[in-house]
Structures are given as C-alpha cells and as structure tokens.
Amino acid sequence: MTTLSDPQGESFRLSMLLNDTRYRSYTFQFIALVCVAALFAYLGSNLMANLRAAGLSISYDFLGDPSGYDINQTMIAYTSQSSHLRASIVGLLNTLLVSILACITATIIGVVAGVLRLSNNWLVSKLMAGYVEMFRNVPVLIWIIIIFTIMTAVAPSPSAFRGDDPDASMVFGMIAFTNRGVYVPAPVFEPLGWVVLGVFLASIVASILYRRHARKKLFDEGVLLPTTWPTLAIVFVPAILVFFVLGRPITLDIPELGGFNFSGGVTLLGSLIALWFALAIYTGAFIAENVRAGILSVSRGQTEAAAALGLRPRRIMNLVVLPQALRVIVPPLISHYLNITKNSSLAIAVGYMDLTGTLGGITLNQTGRAIETILLLMLFYLAISLTISGLMNVYNNAVRLKER
Amino acid sequence: MADTAVETPSPAKLEVSDEVAIQITNMNKWYGTFHVLRDIDLTVHRGERIVIAGPSGSGKSTLIRCINALEEHQRGRIEVDGTVLSSDIKNIDTIRSEVGMVFQHFNLFPHLTILENCTLAPIWVRKIPKHEAEKTAMHFLEKVKIPEQADKYPGQLSGGQQQRVAIARSLCMRPRIMLFDEPTSALDPEMIKEVLDTMVELAEEGMTMICVTHEMGFARQVANRVIFMDQGQIVEQNEPEEFFNNPKNPRTQLFLSQILGH
Amino acid sequence: MADTAVETPSPAKLEVSDEVAIQITNMNKWYGTFHVLRDIDLTVHRGERIVIAGPSGSGKSTLIRCINALEEHQRGRIEVDGTVLSSDIKNIDTIRSEVGMVFQHFNLFPHLTILENCTLAPIWVRKIPKHEAEKTAMHFLEKVKIPEQADKYPGQLSGGQQQRVAIARSLCMRPRIMLFDEPTSALDPEMIKEVLDTMVELAEEGMTMICVTHEMGFARQVANRVIFMDQGQIVEQNEPEEFFNNPKNPRTQLFLSQILGH
Amino acid sequence: MSDVHAQSVGWVRDTLIDQQPPPVTEAGAVKWVRSNLFSTIPNAILTLAALWVLWRLLSGVAPWILNGIWDAPSLSACREILDGATGGCFAVLAERWNQLLFGFQYPSELYWRPMSAFLLLFVAIAPVLFYKTFPRQMLIFTAIYPFLAYWLIWGGSLLTPVCAGLGFVIGYLVYARLVTQSFAMGFFGGIAAALVFWWITGALNFTGILMMERVESRNLGGFMLNLILGTVCVSLSIPFGIALALGRQSDMPIIKWICVVFIEFIRGVPLITLLFVANVVLAYFLPPGSNFDLILRVIIMITMFASAYIAEVIRGGLAALPKGQYEAADSLGLDYAQAMRLIILPQALKISIPGIVNVAVGLFKDTTLVSVISMFDLVGMIRGPILASTEWNGVYWELLGFAALLFFVTCYGISQYSQWLERQLNTDRR
Amino acid sequence: QTLSDVQDRGTLNCGVTTGLVGFAAPDANGDWSGFDVAVCRAVAAAVLEDPQSVEFVPTTGKTRFTALSSGEIDMLARNTTWTFTRDVDLKFEFAGINYYDGQGFMIPKELGVSSARELSGATVCIQTGTTTELNLADYFRKNNMDYEPVPIETNAEAQQQYIAGACDVYTTDASGLAATRAAFETPGDHVILPEIISKEPLGPLVRHGDNEWGDVVRWTLNALIAAEELGITSANIDEMKAGTESPEINRILGTEGNLGEMLGLDADWAYRAIKANGNYGEIFAKNIGESTPIGLARGLNAQWTDGGLMYAPPFR
Ligand SMILES: Nc1ncnc2c1ncn2[C@@H]1O[C@H](COP(=O)(O)OP(=O)(O)OP(=O)(O)O)[C@@H](O)[C@H]1O
Ligand SMILES: Nc1ncnc2c1ncn2[C@@H]1O[C@H](COP(=O)(O)OP(=O)(O)OP(=O)(O)O)[C@@H](O)[C@H]1O
Ligand SMILES: NC(=O)CC[C@H](N)C(=O)O
Ligand SMILES: [Mg+2]
Ligand SMILES: [Mg+2]
C-alpha cells in the first residue's frame, strides 16, 4: 500500500476520503468496522436487556457444580457427583471416540468401494455405484435412525438369550449381538500376559525394520527379498509362540448373561454402533467417489509409461499410481473427516452421550444456562475443526507437486 | 513443420545387421468391432531405423503399442527379439524390458525427481543396486545433455527437457529396441530440435528404432525405411529418398503433398 | 519471426505534433523490494508511435501498465494528456478512459458477444446511449474487418480475430492514446499479420501509440522511435533506422543480434 | 547397400483390405460376459460374490414390497392380514401420507395451496436451471414466484406479498436511476427506497383484503417443511455468499478478516449447534418483545450456514477467472462495482453453479436436522407423532424407507442435473 | 405485559409436551387434547374468550425452558416439576400444582421384578433434561446399585425403545408411565413398580417478573380446582351463573364483586375457563381418570375435602 505518487503540494481534502485510493480503503474499512461493531453492540444490548428482563446473568460458575446425572459410556472416571465440566470432557472424549472410529471405518469402506468401482468387473462396479448413489443422496440423519432401528428393533434383546432354549445365541459363544449393543470378550492380562503383548509390539516394530531392510537390500545389492509372508510371520509367529510357551497368560473375559444384561467383556453401546456405522457408511460413499476421482486423476499415460518400463501391475500401483493419487485424495479426505466430526453431533438423535449430548444436552437442560453452554459447545467444535484443518494445511504444503 | 528438423537430406549410412529384431506376421487387431490393424506384416532387423507415417487414425500408435504389449492383438503373431508375444506374463515382461518406449506426452512421473524417474525401473525391474542405477542414469542424462537437472522434478523442466528425460529414462533400461510415438508433436519448435538431435545421436549409435513421426527432415536424415500406413494397413514402404521423391501409391502421394505442402 | 511482419523498410512519415501526450519524469517502481523500474524519463508527443523492445523481465510490461495505472508507481510523476496520475480515483478514471490498452492474451469477456464487448465500456463509463455505442462499435469492427462476427462470442473466433476485437474494443472508448503489450506474441504466424495490418492502419491515422513488441518489421515500418529497455531502465532510444542499423549500447547490440539472428 | 535386405525394397500395396468382422470371441455377448465378468479368477469370484449380495438383497426386499399391504387401519390389523407372511405395511403411508407431506397441523382443506406452490416451483426454477432452453422472459415469473409462493403457503392478504414485492421493484427502479451516477449511491438509494416503502406499507393493515386463510408457520411440517427450508435458505444464501466471497477476496484487511472469521467460524461448527442457537439462544439477541417464530429463526441460521459454504464455492469461481479479465475491465475504465457486476460475477457464478448445486443438495439433506430441535419435518413426523401413535407403533421400515426414497429421488435428480450441467459448462469453454 | 401481548395477538402460545396420551397429544387431525391441554384452554378461555384460540407448541424436556424464557411461549403446561432451582435459579414462576406426582418405574412383567430394589444392573430409559434423570442417579447411588442410562428426548422415543427391549425399565413420573402404558398394545404385560422415589409436583409455569400474567394463570387454575370443591360443573355452570346462595361461587362466576377486573380481565373470565372443559375433577376424569384407559386414581390429587391435597386458596 505504498502509494506515494507525487504528494508535493497536495493537502488533505475531505473528498479524498472517497476519491483517493490511499484513503478510500481506510474509509470503507472504517465503515465496515463501525457496522460490525454496531451490529454486535445491538445484539449485545438486546441480550443484556433480555437477560435483565428475565433476571438472568451470564456466568460459568455452573461448570464446577456437580452434574447430578449419569452417563452410560465414560472413558474417564465419572459419577453423578462429578462436575459439569467433567461431564463435558466425558462427552468430548466420546465425540472423539466415535469420530475416530467412524473415520477409520469410512476410510476402509471408501477405499474398497472406490477401488471396486473402478474394477473392470461390470457387475461389481455397478453395485458399488449403486451403494455410492444410494448413501450419498439420503440424509445422514435418516441413515443414523435406520441403523439405530436395526440395532434396537431388529436385534434380539438380552432376554432372548435367556432360558434353556433361547431365541438367540452368542456368536462363537463369545459375542452377543443385542439391541442394547454388542458384547464382546475383553482380554484379561495376567502378569505374563504383558510379556506377550510386549513381544507382539516388538514384532510389529521388527516387521517394519524388516521391510526397511528389504528395501535397502534391493537398493544396495539388487536383491529383492519377499515381504508379504515374512512380514506376517514376523508379526504373528513369535507372539503366538510366546503365548503358548508362557502357558496362555492372556484369557478372555467372555460376557455372560446375568441379571438384566450381559456383564463382563466389553460393551459397545447400540447408540455408539449405530452412529459409528451410519457415519462410516454414509461418509464412505463420499470417500469412495473421492478415491475414484483420485485414481482417475492419475492419467492413463502414467500407468502405460510404467508398464512400458516393465513394471508389474502391483508395483505400478505402489510406486506410481498411489503416490500421485494420494495427493488428490487426501485433502478432500480430511474435509470428510471434518464432516464426520461435525456430523457426530447427530449423536443426540440416538442418545449417544457425546459433547452435544452432555454439554449441549443434559447440562444445558439441568442448568438452563443456554447461552453459556452453547457458546462453549461451539468453541469445542471449532477447536476440533481448526486443529484438523490445520493439520490438513501442513500436509498439503508438504506434498505439493513441484512446478516451475 | 518439416523445416524445423535437421536439414541434411542424405540418410545416414549406418550398418544394419541380418539379425531379426521384430517380426510381425499377419497381425490383426480389433477395437470392439472396429478393425484397426489389418494383416500387418513387418520385419525389423537389428539396427534398423524405421519411420512410420500416415494420416491420423490410421493405426500407427496402435501398431507400436502392440509391439510393446500395451494393447493385445487378436490374430497373428508378434515376435520381439526371439520372444513370441503371448498372454503369458513372463513373455510380456521380457519383451517390455527389452523395448523402450517414448510417448508423445512424455509421461514422466511427476512425484519423482528426474533421477528417480530414471532409476525406478532399473532398480525394481532389473534389480540393479541403487548407486549403479544412478550412475547409469547420470550417464544417459549427460547423453541427453541435462545432467544438471537430475534433482529437479519434471514439473520444473521445459517440454523439450522433459521429453529428453523420457528418452533417458527408457535408455536406462538398456533396451535393444526403442519405440517412439510422435515424440515431438507436443513440443514447441525450438524444443523439437533438442529432442530430434538426441534421437539422431541414438540412431547413429545403431539403436534399433521405430518412430512414428511426421518430421520428414528426421526421416530423411536417419531412417533407412519409411512405412506409410492408412486405414490400419501398411500401404507403402521404401527407402526415404525413394519414398519422398517417388511415392507410388496415390494415397501416399496425397498425404505427402499435404504435409510437405506448407 | 521478424519476417512475418510487413516488409516495407522505411518508417512511414507521419506528422508528429508538438503537444505532449505522455510525460514520465523520474519514475521508479518497486515490487516489494525488487526495483523494477528505475528513473524512467519519457516524453511522448501526440501522434508519436513508439515501440518498446528489450529482453524478458526488463520491465516493458510494467512500464506501460504504469501509464494506465494498472500498477501504481512509488516515485516520480506520470502525466497523461495533462492529467497527473495520482491516487485520486477521479484522475485514474480520466486517464483510463483516455488510454486504450490491448493485452497479449486479448482478455475479451467470454460471456458477452463481440458487440457487447465493444459497447460495454462506452455505455457504462462514457454513458453513451446503447444504439449510439453500437453504431460506433460496428464502425470500429468494420475497421478491423470483422463486422460479420458482431453477434458471435469470443470463444468462436480465432486468435487473430480475437485480438482485432480487443483493439476495436479499446477504440470504441475513442482513446487518444493506445498501449499495446506484445499484442501478437500469443498468435500463430498467419494471424500475426492480420493484427499488425490493423495496427499499421491505426498508426497511419495518427493515433498516439506505445507498443511493446519484438516484431521488428513493424517497428521499421511505423515507429518513429524505438526504445530499448534493460533491467528496468531505458538503455537506448532512437529512430528505427538508426536503432537497427547502428545500435550504440553493447546490450542493444547483443539483443538485436539475437532476435534478428534466426 | 540396404537393398540387400528384402524388406527394405520398396513395396506398395495395390488392393486395400476391407474391414473384417472380429473373431467370435471378440464380439457379442460372449465377449462381453467374458471380459466384464469373468476375465480373471479373482474377477470371477468377485462376480459371484456380487451376484450373491444382489440375490440376498432382492430376496429380502422383493417379497416385502410385493406382498405389501396398502390398506389397513393399524399395524396389528395389517399383521393380521399378512398372517405371518413377509410383507410391508405400506398402509401407514396410505393413511398418513398427507401428514408426511404437509405435517400434522396444516389444514387439510388447504393442501392444494402448498401443492400448487410446489408445482409452480418447477416453472419458476426451469429458466434458471436450463437457461439455454427456456426463454428469458420466464425469469419474470421466477422473480414473482417467491411472493406468490409465500402467499400460497402462508395465506393472508395478497397485498402483503405484493407490497413486499413492490418494495423490491421500487428499490430496483431507484437503483437503476441512480446507478449510472455511482454504484454506491444506486445501491444504498435502492435499499433506502425499499425500506421506506416497506415501512410505510408495514404500518397499513391489509387484513380482509384479498384474504386467503392464514396458516401459522409453526403449522408447517412434513416434507413440505424440508422443501421450504431448502429452497428458501439456498436462494437467500446466494446473495450473502457472493458478498462474503467478494469480501474474502478483498484487499482491505479488515473487511477480509471479518469475512474470513465469519466463514471459518460457521464452517467449523456443526449445523446442529447453529440450530440450537436458533432454538434456544437467538431469541435473547433479538430486540425485547420481538417475536420471531421458530421457522424464521431456523431460516436465519441455516441461511448463515449455507452462505458460508456458498461463499467458498463462489470464491473458487472467482479464483478460476484469469487475472486478465480484471485487468481488462480496469483498463476500460470500469469501476469496481461495474467490473464485478458486468464482467466478473456473471462469469464466476456460471463456473460456480455446479458447486452451488452440490451445496444445495447437502443443505437440503441437512434440513432433516430440524427434527432434532423438535420441528416436525418429514423425519420429525415419522419419529414423533406417527411412530408414537398407538396404531402405527413399530412400522419402522416402511416409514424410514419412504423418507429415504423421497430424499433419494430428489437429491439424485438434482445431482444428476449438476453433473449434466458440469458437462455442459465444460463443452462451453472449448 | 404478557397479558396484553396475548390479547393483542389473539392467541395464547402454550407449551406442551410433544405427545403424551392423556396429558397432551394431537389426534390425527392435529387437534390437541389432554389434561395439560385443558389448562391451556382454560387460560385461553379466560383471557381470550375462546378456548380454541390456543397455539400449542410441542416442547421436549430440553426445549421447554428456553422456549418459555425466550418468550416463544406464554406459559408452559407440560408436566413440569416444581423445584427450587427452576423457580429460583431459572427464574420461573409456578402458578400452582395441577398434579401431585412421583417418579416410578415400569418394567415388563416377564422379567419378574417386583421391587425397584431389584433393579441393580438394569438398563433404564430416561428422558434427558428432567428431574427424573437426577432422581434416578440419586436413587441408585443411595442404594448402591448400578444401572445403565439410555437417554432419550421424548416420551415417544422412550416408548419405542422400551417396547423394542432396548431398555429393561422405563422411568418417569408415575402419571406419565400410566399414560405410556395405556398406549401399548397389551398394557397388561407391563407393571409399574410400587416404589415412588421422588416428589413431583407438576404445574403450569410462566416467566418471573410478570406478576399480572402469573396471577391470571394461577387463579385460572385455582378457579378450576375451587369449582370442583364448590360443585361448579360444566353442566350446572349456566344455572349457577344466574346467581347462587354461595358468595364465593358468585365471586368466582363474576356475579358478585370485581375479581375479574382486579385480574385485568372481565367478570366472566372464570365462567369461561370452567365452561371450556369443566372443573378440575371433570378434566381429570375425562383425560386420565379411572374410566379412561390410563386409569389413574385421584389419590393425592383428590380435593382436600376428600383427603387429598387439592386445595384452592379462597376467592376473596
Ligand atoms: N481404445 C480404443 N478404443 C476404440 N477405438 C480406438 C481406441 N484407440 C484408438 N482407437 C481407434 O483406432 C484408430 C487408430 O488409432 P491410432 O491412435 O492408432 O491412430 P494414429 O495413427 O496413431 O493416429 P494419430 O496420428 O492421430 O495419433 C483410430 O480410428 C482410433 O479412433
Ligand atoms: N506482480 C509482480 N510481483 C513481483 N515481481 C513482478 C511482478 N510482475 C512482474 N514482476 C517482475 O518484474 C520484472 C519485470 O516484469 P515485466 O513483466 O515488466 O517484464 P517484461 O519486460 O514485460 O518481460 P516479458 O517480455 O517477459 O513480458 C520481472 O523480473 C518480473 O519477474
Ligand atoms: N417426563 C417429563 O417430561 C417431565 C419429567 C419431570 N416431571 C420434569 O419436570 O422434569
Ligand atoms: Mg497416434
Ligand atoms: Mg511483458
């Protein structure tokens, strides 16, 4: 904005505020600022007047008060005596949990569907197109409700597992699908069990090292070691061996029907599952399109050039197509992740206690602090969104193709 | 366009061996019901440099893509360097690593540096250790006169430079036969010269080459045979001198009058 | 490229008035910290036809864009037709409606017909009634020899035709001065001629013109001054004959040898 | 020397070979099946798997649909008729379809009004969507339509929408008068004139003149509510979106930042929280004593939401325009407002149409979220009154399937349109 | 000033539940009826002379208070419990009590549970944002039992979940349980456990700070209760309107004194209010009484003269 053409002999005139490029933009910005400030002042004064009329005031003290309600899924210690703030954090963690689960599942579904849609099998690609169109064009809320209905109205209730001749039985004798959720066995670690786990983790690291080594060997000596089977072997064989050698130190805590419900094992709440799958399958359809577009964006010429060099189809995929397609796929993928996080607020429709359910739901209700809680709620979501999109920008800058 | 190429009118006298490099017998190909290649018979000897010309849609690209197994043919037989092209993956791999191909649109891998573009196939297909592959790559990059660009990305080079990298990339596989599909038609006039110079040099070293091009100057200078295709068939073939000065087939005459006309 | 232009070697002898059309005094411009234009002094008289030449990046475009206030300058003084270019919007508007500009890439408005392209500014800026504006537009379209295209859209015309429309569009504002920024360099050789012919005609009518171009044939035929720029400075200026035959500055000599060389 | 080699000797073909039919394996159904379904072993496995999935889907759904009961007073009656066989109880749709479409509070004798508004919508929107096929004059109807639709759906005196419309006309006339002098003057003059007109007519009471029975907006519901929210909010958000996009492109930092903050804020929070704002807090920010009904507050929030997204789409369109267009406009002496109005926006908007349509589809789907704040849109109707009623407690699939189908048809239609349009635009710009 | 707002507008905006048979539920034509609805209609009749000029705004446990405090509704008649915080902290004014209730549990008979003490480990459906949610937490904590809450928004959802077996127990106000059970296909398969774990005095409420309007609602409700006590019914009200021996009846019906005027209404206000749906007893009997499928006994809600708690302050 250095605009200093020939200032000599000119003195400031009022009309310059409108006609001079130097001052004009200040004038406009000033006006805009005043308008916005006036709008806020107006809203604020309305707020004050309304609050005064209703005898209320803005205060966040309620966050420290005991919440008084119970939450069915808590990842940190929580009782009805804990504070509202803690309840919000429980909700936040639940939001993150379902979002992360849904993101992972949606990515898997999306990638599979997207790749299959490009398959040269006519039937499969049409089937996938059907899946994509069907899920993309129906509101996610309807999908959530449909899946929740499957969970509650179609799955058997725990009482169906009761009796000598039950209507329903557990899958493998370990997993129970009920209309309250899915009960799966939980691993129980005896002291030595941790050793097995340690060995397992170590072998994962080892397998990564092995792959690195294989690559280095190829680069240094031109020897191509097999990777797929050795990797699998390295990951599983030692852990299994150790498991048996140490005398099966990990046992399963199989859920058992007792009282009203199954107890023991891990419970995946019906509302969590409904929300998780609905989000995953809905967003998966979008991701599929995205993946398809990404792969198609790598021109046929690239594949042909690689083929002409003698590379085999799987290598072409790994070395040429995927690295390029990922650059196209990832940015929209991340905005789909963002959408999942935002759509997870629909938890409220199935009674999953996420951030909207606790802070924006029960806390709001029980305290009546609408303005405070909703403001806080928005800030929480905004923080999540900004974090995700910040990461996205970092990634985009890192992988941008060099152009001249 | 013809005038941008090198202007020496006499075909380079290069020795051609008796050995057969490519033998195509009675080859036919259809796209759906469309008969693209009809009864193609062609024998290419080691060291021959063949230019294929012909109107658009006459099947030139399809023909050389069949040689590389980028397209499958439905009838007839293609034998490259003693290997018969069948749907056997082994054979296809053998042939592809013997035959280098340069495309009209370069098709460099934009996510890899120039050097990585050149070493990718040698490392993964030929299993050559990386540093050796890099040495070879630098050698060929020097040959195409752009060793200093080795660490740049394709997007940072001009079209002519990119096409030269594409040639170097093929050469790094040390192919015995090179196929060129209109390697210069996507380039600006100045850049065409850079690329043609590189190709002339290759020809002079005795590489077996099949080149689809309309650069008649190039054809005159290096080809020892020009093949004219129309409607999926080889219509005429001859030595460049004869071909240009004395085309026999009326279709060829018409075509030559058009492209040499302006 | 020089050979595509009209080949009459003597500069047209056109009268040049004493009146000053553009006066640039000691003008400097920076892009950020990069000093693009340094101490430019230039006086253009009414009726003069000036060609600006110089290597890429020497600031030619920037200079003429400053005259049109498309870029602001930071120091010095530009006076166009008696109006001093300051940051006063009134002045900028006055100057812009006095000065027509033709860009390298035409920049026609693709959503408007040719006629609408030509009448838009007269109607909205000059507040000329529509039918009158259309009459003027048709007049200038005839002058550039494409009246029959008036109802087409720019996308339907060839590059040369588009550039001629761009010229007509500027003329419709009845500017006293025309600026051309490499008006022919985005065109094919045949089309260059069409556009240059139009410009020559304009020149012969006595329009004040500043033209950035490397068409030396054009410069010889119509310019009465050639200005050579390098590194943001005016390095040499002279009559075309002198300039081409007898360049003084070594930088100019080098440049001329390059562009006339091939 | 080269004539040693037989193949180098000149050779000319005298007779051209004709097209021949491909070998049998290369054409016809056999080839198609082979290459599309069973080209490799994994492919064949995939095909079989797909066939199995299809079979499962069809065998599950087909009898349910074919055996459907369309006439029964309640679920239990329906089950009795079915007598254990698989089959849907579509009777619920037959019995409640007008509740599903119009909500349970819209007077049933007035259903023709929203119905005709809905049909006229197509007439109004056609010249916008297919701007090439329909005459431009039809745009006049498009301009009138919002006021007509308001009158049809909400009723009341015809003069109310007429005056609202006249306000726009007067504003436009004043604008057209003044704009030749200065855009700002025309713009603000137009707004001022319209406001003055509305203020004057607002004081008048039209009750009784050309009346149709009034329907309160809280009585709207069902799919109609989704449609109203969708169309109203999208149309309203386009001008705001344009303003925001221009603001975000502006080189005046304060204006730019105001727009950036607004857009990023709105895009960073879920629509639900904005609906909560509409539902529970917005009223606190309105002047004391003013009584905005819920629908209006929801429209305000959804419009804000949509404009942020549309602004981003339009910003993309603006960025896609070559810089030369801006410069050419400048060099002809057009001022900012003229350049935007005459050169930049017409082009940028055209590029943005497919993106805007996509936002519109997304938004239309999101209108179902209003059921969460207990408004009775299609989903709200199903979840609330219908499923809770004694007769129809438990008919999930028929109702949810119906809702899904309704949305699918609409959204799929629109997205097909947008793809068609994208292809059109691509060929336009050769 | 709510009173004049309502009169200007010509309709009363009354917040009710989204649907609880017997208390407030729309029929297939969208006409609302029920015990809470009757209160709204009585107030509308008193203020606007027409019991039909009510706009019913369905609210959930969550939206009801904000709807009221933001002015979207003029009064809330939605089985809302009168609690200290709602009155004092949320700044509402309870106009009285129209139903003395307590929280109960409903459970399918087949589970064989006979006492709330046996509910340890159960999955409980609970409406969020209600007092019952807090009571439930307290009750289980106090008795050292654990449970899994399934939060839902509306009674309708609760009903679906409970029927589908997604929860073992449904808990809410006992009256609500009775109403919900009545809507089941086979009400006999479900039992309401004997324990009542809380006090839930339900009543209509208005915003703090508008005492005139508060008085109108309070005394309309009281008029309904007093009418029952004094034997004014919708059948005999027209007779009594002509004048009776009892000065209190006369004061209520506006034939004596100027109570209506003091309220800012006309003399006939209470007459219209009672006429609209009958007196308290009639309303109770018609909507939730023993002769209805819901079948609630008067119990605590009998007149004080019958040993109940319904006790209207004197009209004087
Ligand atoms: N994948 C395909 N499917 C169907 N037809 C094709 C396909 N590829 C090419 N063709 C058709 O085959 C014919 C020969 O194509 P080819 O590309 O070989 O011609 P060409 O001689 O290389 O022409 P050009 O000079 O334009 O490159 C053309 O008519 C073309 O339309
Ligand atoms: N917007 C800008 N920001 C920064 N530097 C710029 C900008 N525009 C141009 N430049 C630089 O200013 C110098 C002069 O540019 P200008 O376009 O005037 O050159 P030119 O003489 O017209 O060259 P050419 O013949 O390539 O058009 C160049 O070095 C260019 O890189
Ligand atoms: N079930 C309800 O909706 C009301 C519950 C309880 N009476 C309350 O006021 O919180
Ligand atoms: Mg080709
Ligand atoms: Mg330039």
Automatic annotation (TrEMBL), chain A:
Keywords: Amino-acid transport, Cell membrane, Membrane, Transmembrane, Transmembrane helix, Transport. The chain crosses the membrane at residues 26-43, 92-118, 138-156, 192-210, 222-246, 266-288, 344-362, 374-395. Pfam families: BPD_transp_1. It is a multi-pass membrane protein. One of its GO terms (biological process) is amino acid transport. Gene3D superfamilies: MetI-like (1.10.3720.10). One of its GO terms (cellular component) is ATP-binding cassette (ABC) transporter complex. SUPFAM superfamilies: MetI-like (SSF161098). The keyword Transport applies. It is found in: Cell inner membrane; Cell membrane. One of its GO terms (molecular function) is transmembrane transporter activity. InterPro entries: AA_ABC_transptr_permease_3TM, ArtM/GltK/GlnP/TcyL/YhdX-like, MetI-like, MetI-like_sf. Its main location: membrane. It comes from the Bacteria. Residues 92-392 form the ABC transmembrane type-1 domain. Belongs to the binding-protein-dependent transport system permease family. HisMQ subfamily. PANTHER family: AMINO-ACID ABC TRANSPORTER PERMEASE PROTEIN YHDX-RELATED (PTHR30614:SF37), MEMBRANE COMPONENT OF AMINO ACID ABC TRANSPORTER (PTHR30614). This is L-glutamine ABC transporter membrane protein /L-glutamate ABC transporter membrane protein /L-aspartate ABC transporter membrane protein /L-asparagine ABC transporter membrane protein. It comes from Roseivivax sediminis. The lineage of its organism: Bacteria, Pseudomonadati, Pseudomonadota, Alphaproteobacteria, Rhodobacterales.
Automatic annotation (TrEMBL), chains B, C:
GO terms for molecular function: ABC-type amino acid transporter activity; ATP binding; ATP hydrolysis activity. Signal peptide: none annotated. Residues 22-256 form the ABC transporter domain. Keywords: ATP-binding, Nucleotide-binding, Transport. It holds the Pfam family ABC_tran. The keyword Transmembrane does not apply. InterPro entries: AAA+_ATPase (IPR003593), ABC_ATPase_HisP-typ (IPR030679), ABC_transporter-like_ATP-bd (IPR003439), ABC_transporter-like_CS (IPR017871), MetN_ABC_transporter-like (IPR050086), P-loop_NTPase (IPR027417). SMART domains: AAA. Belongs to the ABC transporter superfamily. This is L-glutamine ABC transporter ATP-binding protein /L-glutamate ABC transporter ATP-binding protein /L-aspartate ABC transporter ATP-binding protein /L-asparagine ABC transporter ATP-binding protein.
Automatic annotation (TrEMBL), chain D:
It is a multi-pass membrane protein. Residues 223-418 form the ABC transmembrane type-1 domain. Belongs to the binding-protein-dependent transport system permease family. HisMQ subfamily. The keyword Transmembrane helix applies. GO terms for biological process: amino acid transport. GO terms for molecular function: transmembrane transporter activity. This is L-glutamine ABC transporter membrane protein /L-glutamate ABC transporter membrane protein /L-aspartate ABC transporter membrane protein /L-asparagine ABC transporter membrane protein. It holds the Pfam family BPD_transp_1. It comes from Roseivivax sediminis. It is found in: Cell inner membrane; Cell membrane. PROSITE patterns: ABC_TM1. It comes from the Bacteria. Signal peptide: none annotated. PANTHER family: INNER MEMBRANE AMINO-ACID ABC TRANSPORTER PERMEASE PROTEIN YHDY, MEMBRANE COMPONENT OF AMINO ACID ABC TRANSPORTER. The chain crosses the membrane at residues 44-66, 110-131, 159-175, 187-211, 223-246, 258-282, 294-314, 351-376, 396-415. Keywords: Cell membrane, Membrane, Transmembrane, Transmembrane helix, Transport. CDD domains: TM_PBP2. One of its GO terms (cellular component) is ATP-binding cassette (ABC) transporter complex.
